[in-house]
Amino acid sequence: MIIGLIVGAIAGFVASRIMNAQGNVLKYLILGIVGGLVGGAVASLLGIASTSTIGNFIISVAGSCIVIWVGRQIFK
Fold this sequence. Notes:
Elements: H1 2-18, H2 25-45, H3 53-74
């Protein structure tokens, strides 16, 4: 559980750097968790599965990037 939160926060942080977004640690944590859910759903729809921590991290970062992009489109 704690490891998942830490990985989620790191994924949110990495995604925010990729997408050039600003925020605090709480925002990164929430972004990483939501991004992990979104990334997992998108990966599942595409038939991509990962059993490794690195693969799940990459999927979480990709999902977080999607969440940032959608947020920017909604709040333009």
